[in-house]
UniProtKB/TrEMBL annotation:
Predominant location: mitochondrion
A cellular-component GO term for this protein: mitochondrial inner membrane
TM annotation in the entry: 6-28
Top-level taxon: Eukaryota
Tagged with keyword Magnesium: no
Region called Disordered, residue ranges: 81-116
Matching InterPro entries: Cbp4
Family per similarity comment: Belongs to the CBP4 family.
Compositionally biased residues, Basic and acidic residues: 82-116
Subcellular location: Mitochondrion inner membrane
The protein's name in its UniProt record: Cytochrome b mRNA-processing protein 4
Keywords of the record: Chaperone, Membrane, Mitochondrion, Mitochondrion inner membrane, Transmembrane, Transmembrane helix
Source species of the chain: Penicillium citrinum
Membrane topology: Single-pass membrane protein
């Protein structure tokens, strides 16, 4: 066999593998709709209910990523600062709720003692 024939076979095989492989995978891969049809009814119902919520969460996350990327800091530092701010706000809210509960308990105790 000549060298030209060998090179032709190698190139044809490479083209077949590099184009035909992904095309075959795309052909046999089921679509999202086909996958949903294979779900049992409970999963179909749950996926339909949670779909919009998950899309909203993803959109919120992408929006935050865009916001963090505008910062001159690394995205990871910006995300950490955001998490720290959120945690501090939650702690402040929790301590405020504890303080209100404490005041309410004190008022209830005073009412009970005053009525006796």
């Amino acid at each position: 066999m000549s060298r030209a024939g060998l090179w032709f076979k190698v190139i044809a095989g490479g083209i077949l593998i590099s184009i035909g492989g992904p095309a075959f995978v795309e052909y046999i891969r089921p679509t999202d709709e086909e996958l949903r049809k294979r779900y049992n009814p409970d999963l179909q119902k749950r996926a339909a209910e949670q779909g919009s919520r998950r899309e909203q969460e993803f959109d919120d996350y992408v929006t935050k990523l865009k916001e963090w990327s505008k910062s001159d800091k690394s995205i990871w530092y910006a995300a950490q600062e955001e998490q720290d701010r959120r945690r501090a706000a939650e702690d402040a809210q929790r301590s405020q709720a504890k303080e209100q509960a404490k005041v309410q308990r004190e008022e209830m105790r005073k009412e009970m003692l005053g009525e006796k």
